[in-house]
Design a protein that fits this description.
alpha+beta, Beta-Lactamase, kinase, PAS_fold_3, phosphorelay sensor kinase activity, EC 2.7.13.3, PAC
């Protein structure tokens, strides 16, 4: 059968495919042939049986001859001649295979193999979207024509084999990877469908025939109905042998729409020449369309991500200096890319460097540069990276990304300035500042004050190994180092501070005293301290003063001991005449009272009373002088001492109906006898100055204080402090007298109103100071007073 209908087909003139074919013929023929050879074996082409006896090289030789002829005709835009020649050779059985051995599956697979080879090499030739899509379309047109011509020849051969026609057709139908059907366009019914029809379409031929023309509305996607109707109208204009393809969606029985592609051709015409029946192949392309949709969505996500990150992409064709920008890059550059002069916008100071980078990319294949760019919005700092693309082994284009790092650059500059400021500030500090790394045992940073303190430069300190760093510290202070490294009691929280005094060896060998304060700078995931930030203050002069003060204190203690001894002797000598005055006064009262006048009795009683008060005052003075000399500190429960004081005042407490409320007090290092007296004096004071008719109530409470809470009191330094408060409901006092009440022999009330010598609270204050603490008082006239004792622990 001759291809008489060939001349009636539309011309196979292509726009872009001839150039692509010429490129393959000149540069990629061997790759093109070998790709087809590999794909042929991957899909197990039946025609391979015809060349199984040939070696690989012999098979490749056949492939080179065939593809060289095909590409040459394509390059000359004469592929119609090629198809006619091949079809004629097939009909004349002049090819390397038996013409009767060809089946429809071979045609489909061969087209698939050749199309796949074209598609595989397409990106090497063209990377631009629109031309690439047009080339794909022209390749489809080529093989649709090739397949149509092959099917027409195959049909003729089948007609020559009438005896085997039925079986042969059924085999073709069963092997076609799609639904093959004959459709009557007049009755809208399928006249024939292959075995794959139901599997591919999701409906049987009978089910679709039952719907008739209503299938357009019943199963065709609403958006695709116009496409189907327009296709049926165009089909009426088709010539015999033309293949027309279109895509549409069909709703499956599960309710989901799937994509299909039908390739249809005229099968039969009526007496008037109108198309009555068509033959078609329908393929399920749902996966392909979903992949394409996913690619589009991924591209949209990429563009969105670029907008968020302020990154744009470009494609720069070197030979015509044309640019293609993504939307974000157009926004960054302030230009869409047409007729764009990139170098005109680069900052003059960066221009030569950027040009050099681009020139180097033509050799190295990569481009990476940061530069300033003058955009319509103002100056920007940009970072560009790109790769070179070759065509025919020559530089063709550069593609890449550009990131707007203006804000990042400003932030980095601000950070650098801040870092420089901090470095200058640290170097100007009169304290030695440092960062110590515990795992390595080395300093990570020291300021320049180290030179003025120890005589070392910062560089010398940073170069010291762990053992040398330890050697800087006095052996007596080495115990501080492991405590600093692992003490959870000192560094419970990141803001916790550790303070200690230590000696470091100067470069000249002398020892130098420093006061160090350290806080946690970094911890690992388990919470272990890794780095410590510290500041060390020069206290060498203070230490010398402390040594002098210690010597003076020792001398003062010796003097106090001598004074105490003197006070004891003096009090003893003073008591002796007082005892005689008191004794003889008592004898006068007992023996001569009746002989004395009323004035004499009054004077005598005053003499006796004054001598007794004088003796009590001497005893109190002796007690005060003995307080600072008693160093018998013990760790005792303060509650037991308070209970002793309450027991000593039991009679007076019962007499005035007083109530003492005391919480469970902690233990402390105190002189028991003195604290017992302190408690007794404070309770006695509250009982003495009770309001008339109101039973006294004394509340005793305690709490712990942090060092910063008592910093204003200038107490001895300690990790924490104990506060004891005694609150009563007595007569109170004006706060302007709060300091006076602790002075010796000072009274706020007359002796006739309240008994005592005005020395009890002075003893309390002396005891508090002897324990390194302090005591204060607040009064509220008519409501009571609060006495607050604070002791270092």
């Amino acid at each position: 059968m001759q291809l008489q209908a060939e001349t009636k087909r539309p011309s196979l003139d292509f726009e872009l495919l001839p150039a692509f074919a010429g490129y393959l013929l000149e540069h990629k023929l061997e790759a093109f042939v070998r790709l087809q050879y590999r794909f042929t074996y991957e899909i197990e082409l039946t025609l391979l049986n015809q060349v199984a006896h040939l070696s690989e090289e012999e098979q490749l030789t056949f492939g080179r001859e065939y593809n060289r002829d095909l590409l040459k005709h394509l390059a000359e835009n004469r592929v119609g001649d090629f198809i006619r020649n091949r079809m004629t050779q097939w009909q004349q059985n002049a090819l390397f295979f038996d013409k009767y051995s060809v089946i429809a599956e071979d045609i489909t697979k061969l087209s698939y193999i050749r199309k796949r080879a074209f598609h595989q090499l397409l990106p090497d030739y063209c990377a631009e979207g629109v031309p690439m899509l047009q080339l794909v379309h022209e390749i489809d047109r080529l093989f649709l024509r090739y397949d149509a011509a092959s099917l027409e020849v195959l049909t003729g051969i089948i007609e020559q084999q009438a005896a085997e026609r039925s079986l042969f057709i059924e085999k073709i139908n069963s092997t076609i990877p799609g639904a093959l059907y004959i459709f009557d366009v007049r009755t809208f019914r399928n006249l024939y469908a292959n075995e794959n029809f139901t599997e591919v379409m999701g409906y049987s031929r009978e089910e679709l025939n039952a719907l008739g023309q209503e299938a357009l509305t019943a199963v065709i996607h609403p958006d695709d109905r116009a496409v189907v109707e327009a296709h049926l109208e165009r089909l009426q204009e088709a010539s015999d042998g033309d293949f027309m393809s279109y895509q549409y969606r069909i709703r499956g029985k599960d309710g989901r729409y799937r994509w299909y592609r039908s390739s249809e051709s005229v099968f039969r015409r009526d007496a008037g020449g109108k198309i009555s029946e068509i033959i078609a192949i329908c393929l399920n392309i749902d996966t392909e369309m979903q992949t394409a949709q996913a690619l589009r969505e991924r591209e949209e996500q990429l563009l969105e991500a670029q907008a968020i990150a302020r990154i744009g992409s470009f494609y720069w064709t070197l030979e015509n200096n044309k640019y293609t920008f993504t939307p974000e890059l157009s926004k960054i550059f302030g230009h869409r890319g047409e007729d764009f002069d990139f170098y005109a916008h680069v900052h003059p100071d960066d221009l030569e460097r950027v040009r050099s980078k681009v020139e180097a990319a033509l050799t190295t294949g990569t481009f990476d540069s940061e530069y300033r760019y003058d955009s319509p919005e103002g100056p920007k700092q940009l970072w560009a990276r790109g790769v070179l693309h070759l065509r025919a082994e020559k530089p063709y284009a550069i593609s890449g990304t550009v990131m707007d790092i203006t804000e990042l650059h400003r932030t980095s500059q601000a950070l650098r300035e801040q870092q420089l400021f901090l470095e200058k500030l640290a170097d100007a500090s009169p304290m030695w500042l440092y960062l110590f790394d515990i795992p390595s045992g080395r300093f990570q940073y020291v300021n320049r004050e180290i030179f003025y303190v120890l005589g070392y430069t910062p560089e010398e300190i940073l170069e010291l190994e762990s053992s040398a760093v330890t050697g800087l510290y006095h052996p007596d202070d080495w115990s501080l180092l492991p405590e600093r490294a692992g003490s959870e009691s000192r560094f419970q929280f990141s803001e916790s501070m550790m303070q200690y005094e230590c000696r470091l060896r100067k470069k000249d060998g002398d020892w130098y005293w420093l006061l160090a304060r350290e806080i946690v700078f970094k911890k690992d995931e388990s919470g272990a301290v890794q780095q410590i930030l510290g500041a060390a203050l020069d206290i060498n002069r203070r230490k010398e003063m402390e040594r002098t003060l210690l010597q003076n204190s020792f001398q003062l203690e010796q003097s106090n001991a001598a004074l105490e001894e003197f006070a004891y002797v003096a009090s003893h000598d003073l008591k002796e005449p007082l005892r005689k005055i008191s004794t003889f006064g008592d004898r006068l009262v007992s023996s001569q009272m009746d002989r004395l006048t009323d004035d004499g009795k009054l004077y005598l009683s005053k003499v006796v009373d004054a001598s007794q008060r004088m003796q009590a005052m001497i005893d109190d003075l002796l007690s005060v002088s003995r307080i600072s000399g008693n160093r018998g500190f013990e760790r005792v429960a303060l509650k037991s001492l308070l209970d002793d004081a309450i027991g000593a005042l039991e009679f007076k407490i019962e007499q005035c109906g007083a109530r003492i409320n005391a919480s469970e007090l902690p233990e402390a290092e105190v002189v028991p006898s003195q604290f017992r007296q302190l408690f007794q004096n404070l309770l006695s004071n509250s009982l003495k100055f009770a309001r008339e008719g109101v039973p006294p109530v004394v509340d005793v409470r305690y709490r712990y204080l942090r060092p910063e809470e008592v910093a204003h009191l200038q107490l001895r330094k300690a990790a924490s402090y104990l506060e004891l408060s005694f609150r009563d409901n007595g007569i109170g006092f004006e706060n302007e007298y709060a300091g006076k009440i602790f002075q010796i022999f000072q009274r706020l009330h007359g002796r006739s109103e309240y008994e005592g010598n005005g020395i009890g609270l002075a003893i309390v204050k002396k005891i508090a100071e002897h324990h390194g603490g302090t005591i204060g008082a607040e009064g509220d006239p008519g409501h009571g007073a609060v006495f607050t004792l604070i002791l270092p622990l």
